[in-house]
């Protein structure tokens, strides 16, 4: 962003949890006039020391900038902040970018509210942790009207990282977020379970780590290779049929339960694989389960 642009640009950040503080800090670092507000006072002190303007109320915060970025715990919280009559009036003709994580349905509901009150609205999600904000490693996804996105893109890009506009359908960024977090949290549940089973077998997390990373490294090629197969409706299982996966998964359940460790997550995954076999898809690859889950 040029010096002239950044001098003219102003942005408001509502919500100063770890992520809101990181966002406001990155805007300040990029030279933008940054106004901040948080429900609980006091979280803006470091930002104010760096030049942020602390607004005494939400109304004053949103009135200070053409663009307001919201980042709070969920949409119940962002609704509580935005949907009072006074704030809605102050937002008329201005733009809100909601980087709070929640469901696609909540994003669509907020877009309906915004459209009904003359508020311009973009939805978004942040796919990387706070230390990445303001660095090339940040990943942001956005959805909503293209012209609104293009207008505010220079300010959003002051957050660093990559910004992808996924389309005009307002729920799309949240839908990507949900799908990606589905991968993340099921993987983390598997990792936590693996650590417990490994420990019960006398293996430390440090000893397991290099091999655990190796398992993580296998996944990108699988995502890449199976994407086209899935979109084409094919699920080749030549190298690793579901029958083989079921056998491998049952070993994990048995080892885990022999140590008295809850194997509920793996039992659920094994149950899906057994269902695929029962439906006659035992020779297919594991991604057949995506198709089965999607059946109505
Ligand atoms: P939290 O998810 O804990 O959100 C904290 C913020 O929410 C605070 O500003 C808090 O205000 C506010 N808040 C909570 N309830 C209310 C309410 N009823 N009314 C008004 N404000 C409320 O922390 P983060 O900052 O880390 O996360 C913010 C968003 O960013 C979340 O949606 C999260 O999923 C997303 N995100 C976070 C990442 C991270 O690494 N932290 C990574 C990617 C996305 P108060 O201080 O007053 O309690």
From TrEMBL:
It holds the Pfam family RedAm-like_C. Keywords: Oxidoreductase. The keyword Hydrolase does not apply. Residues 11-167 form the 6-phosphogluconate dehydrogenase NADP-binding domain. InterPro entries: 6PGD_dom2, 6PGDH_NADP-bd, HIBADH-related, HIBADH-related_NP60_sf, NAD(P)-bd_dom_sf, RedAm-like_C. Residues 170-294 form the NADPH-dependent reductive aminase-like C-terminal domain. Belongs to the HIBADH-related family. This is NAD(P)-dependent oxidoreductase. It comes from Streptomyces pactum. The lineage of its organism: Bacteria, Bacillati, Actinomycetota, Actinomycetes, Kitasatosporales.
